[in-house]
């Protein structure tokens, strides 16, 4: 039995105002797998994450972590094993310092203070922000905030990481850094986002949601390159899978068409 | 238009000050709480016109600021918010209480002394309270109050109110910025927009507070905020508490300005 497996089985959810956000969503993420969950705005990604984390309770269907079904009774145990990084780190970092924030989870778990400090040091070192331990979260840059939010979840030693748009609002360098960090994890990871190039780079498999249903589930390189499918789901083929505007090549290489005036090369700049 | 973002910045600045690592910061929060309590008792127990005898009490905020490396500007700025209320309350004293009292070779209405005494007492107590927060931090202060027997549920209430205060202020700041950008040249907020702004502020704060609550729940929050670990009070705590208590008692029971004056004039 692996605690690192996450399974959504026939999930349905309707909001109190009657809006049906999810209809019969099923998928599975196995040990160490990195799965991208994508869809247009309103496709049901956020609702799905809330259901997976037990913040909402499904109208029908079940969520299983390992062999344990998510119920109100198993919720505290499951939340120790599944960590979620929010889209906006300002919602997640609510303690006065980065170190205190990372200590929040382990302290709630009832660990001794020396164990708490060990976990905090390990988590902050893991994401490379140990030097920010005593800094106030509101004084950090966007990339640092994201790293601190990830550290606050890592400090709880989760088996599964759920990341909601982890590169949203980041500049290119911070985005690359967060991506490198996520790539280095061996946890089972579920990543949502509209940054499809990030999804393509990190997730070998992708689940595409459309109007609360699973429209497709399969290899990212195939599904994300399917322009008809992407169009039907309100998405676009990631930039890195679109053909070069000059030479028509799909992928990264030096462009075959010289552009002496600009010195640019569409293939490489993509 | 009120600058909400500057209020949030002030709150954050107080928290930043609390993260310094001076000897005063390292003192046990209970020690600092009890010392300030003694200070308040001493300051407030003076007769209502004994303004001269209050002056030696200023040694406490002055020395605390020096030892804890606290700047004066943010504290004096905050005092400026409070003092107008005190002036409003006390300024009529000289009119109502005109009993002449001799002072430094002159005679002045007793109302002036009660007014000055009220002013000094406010300055001393507000300064002491602000310095206590600035050299302890709200979290540690609450942990101290909890250690002194304040029920956990009350500690939790204050802690969450303090956290959500920032959330509310940040949301208000965003709304006011959005409003002012589309109402150039307008002073304040038009009366007709108050209702929708207040409603929007409430809904947005609820929304944000819920997301923060979710983040807390996901990290094991079950109604108990884990307080920072307590340390045992040491020798420095004893020296701080008893040293200051003796000074407050001396100031309270001996008329130091009079004694000093006699010493200097040989009277």
Short characterization:
The complex is a heterodimer of chains A (270) and B (267). Chain A is an alpha/beta fold and 270 residues long.
Taken together, the total number of domains of chain B comes to: 2
The CA-CA distance between the termini of chain B, in Å, is 57 Å
Radius of gyration of chain A equals 20 Å
Largest sheet of chain A: 6 strands, mixed
Could you say which overall geometry of chain B the principal axes of the C-alpha atoms support? Answer: flat
Summed up, the helix count of chain B is 12
Order of helices and strands of chain B: HHHHHHEEHHHHHH
Distance between the termini of chain A: 43 Å
Low-confidence stretches of chain B: none
Helix fraction of chain A, binned, reads 25-40%
Low-confidence stretches of chain A: 260-265
Shape call of chain A: globular
Largest sheet data of chain B: 2 strands, antiparallel
Strand order of the largest sheet of chain B: 1-2
Mean pLDDT of chain A: 87
How much beta of chain A, percentage-wise? 15-25%
Q: Largest interface, counted with CB-CB under 8 A?
A: A-B, 31 and 25 residues
User: What's the SSE pattern of chain A?
Assistant: EEEHEEHEHHHHEHEHEEHHH
> Rounded to an integer, what's the Rg of chain B over CA atoms?
23 Å
- Proportion of residues in helical segments of chain B: over 70%
Descriptive account of the structure:
The complex is a heterodimer of chains A (270) and B (267). Chain A has 270 residues and is an alpha/beta fold. Chain A contains eleven helices and ten strands. Chain A has helices spanning 45-52, 75-81, 89-92, 98-108, 113-126, 142-154, 172-184, 196-202, 220-223, 227-232, 266-269; strands at residues 6-14, 20-29, 34-39, 60-65, 68-69, 82-85, 160-164, 188-192, 205-210, 213-219. In chain A, a hairpin with a 2-residue loop joins strand 4 (60-65) and strand 5 (68-69). In chain A, helix 4 (98-108) packs across helix 5 (113-126) and helix 5 crosses helix 6. The longest helix of chain A has 14 residues, at 113-126. Chain B is mainly alpha-helical. Chain B has two domains: 1-149, no CATH class; 164-224, no CATH class. Chain B is 70% helix and 3% strand. Chain B has twelve helices and two strands, in the order H-H-H-H-H-H-E-E-H-H-H-H-H-H. Chain B has helices at residues 4-18, 23-26, 29-44, 59-67, 73-90, 93-96, 110-134, 138-147, 152-181, 191-218, 235-253, 256-265; strands at residues 100-103, 106-109. In chain B, strand 1 and strand 2 form a beta hairpin. The mean pLDDT of chain B is 84. Chain A binds chain B through residues 50, 53, 55, 76, 79-80, 83-84, 86, 88, 91-92, 94-97, 100, 103-105, 107-109, 113, 134, 136, 138-139, 152-153, 156, and chain B through 12, 15-16, 18-19, 137-139, 163, 208, 211-212, 214-222, 224, 226, 228-229.
């Amino acid at each position: 039995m692996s605690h690192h497996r996450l399974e959504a089985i026939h999930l349905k959810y309707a909001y109190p105002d009657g809006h049906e956000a999810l209809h019969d969503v099923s998928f599975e993420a196995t040990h160490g797998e990195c799965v991208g969950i994508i869809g247009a705005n309103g496709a049901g990604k956020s609702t799905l994450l809330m259901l997976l984390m037990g913040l909402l309770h499904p109208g029908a269907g079940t969520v299983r972590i390992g062999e344990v079904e998510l119920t109100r009774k198993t919720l505290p145990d499951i939340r120790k094993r599944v960590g979620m990084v929010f889209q906006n780190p300002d919602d997640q970092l609510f303690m006065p310092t980065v170190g205190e924030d990372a200590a929040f989870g382990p302290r709630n778990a009832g660990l001794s203070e020396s164990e708490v400090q060990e976990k905090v040091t390990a988590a902050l070192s893991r994401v490379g922000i140990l030097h920010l331990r005593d800094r106030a979260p509101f004084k950090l840059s966007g990339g640092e905030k994201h790293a601190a939010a990830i550290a606050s979840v890592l400090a709880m030693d989760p088996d599964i990481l759920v990341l909601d748009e982890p590169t949203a609002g980041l500049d290119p360098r911070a985005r690359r850094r967060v991506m490198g960090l996520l790539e280095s994890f061996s946890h089972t990871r579920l990543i949502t986002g509209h940054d499809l190039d990030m999804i393509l780079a990190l997730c070998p498999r992708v689940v595409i949601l459309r109007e609360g249903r699973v429209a497709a589930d399969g290899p990212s390189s195939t599904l994300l390159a399917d322009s008809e499918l992407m169009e039907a789901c309100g998405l676009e083929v990631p930039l890195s899978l679109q053909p070069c505007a000059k030479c028509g090549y799909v992928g990264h290489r030096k462009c075959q068409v010289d552009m002496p005036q600009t010195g640019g090369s569409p293939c490489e700049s993509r | 238009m009120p600058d909400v973002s500057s209020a949030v910045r002030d709150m954050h600045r107080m928290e930043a000050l609390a993260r310094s690592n001076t000897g005063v910061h390292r003192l046990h929060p209970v020690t600092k709480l009890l010392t300030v309590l003694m200070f308040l008792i001493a300051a407030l127990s003076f007769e209502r016109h004994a303004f001269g005898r209050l002056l030696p009490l200023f040694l406490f905020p002055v020395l605390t600021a020096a030892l804890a490396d606290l700047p004066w500007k943010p504290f004096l700025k905050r005092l400026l918010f409070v003092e107008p209320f005190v002036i409003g309350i006390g300024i009529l004293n000289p009119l109502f209480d005109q009993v002449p009292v001799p002072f430094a070779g002159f005679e002045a209405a007793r109302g002036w002394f009660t007014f000055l005494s009220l002013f000094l007492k406010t300055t001393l107590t507000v300064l002491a309270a602000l310095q206590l927060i600035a050299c302890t931090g709200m979290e540690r202060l609450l942990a101290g109050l909890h250690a002194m027997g304040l029920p956990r549920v009350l500690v939790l209430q204050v802690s969450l109110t303090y956290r959500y205060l920032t959330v509310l202020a940040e949301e208000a700041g965003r709304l006011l910025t959005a409003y002012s950008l589309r109402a150039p040249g307008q002073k304040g907020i038009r009366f007709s927009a108050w209702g929708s702004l207040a409603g929007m502020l409430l809904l947005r704060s609820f929304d944000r507070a819920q997301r923060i609550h979710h983040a807390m729940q996901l990290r094991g929050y079950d109604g108990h905020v884990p307080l920072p670990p307590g340390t045992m009070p040491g020798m420095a705590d004893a020296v701080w508490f008893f040293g200051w208590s003796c000074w407050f008692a001396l100031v309270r029971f001996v008329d130091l300005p009079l004694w000093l004056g006699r010493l200097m004039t040989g009277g």
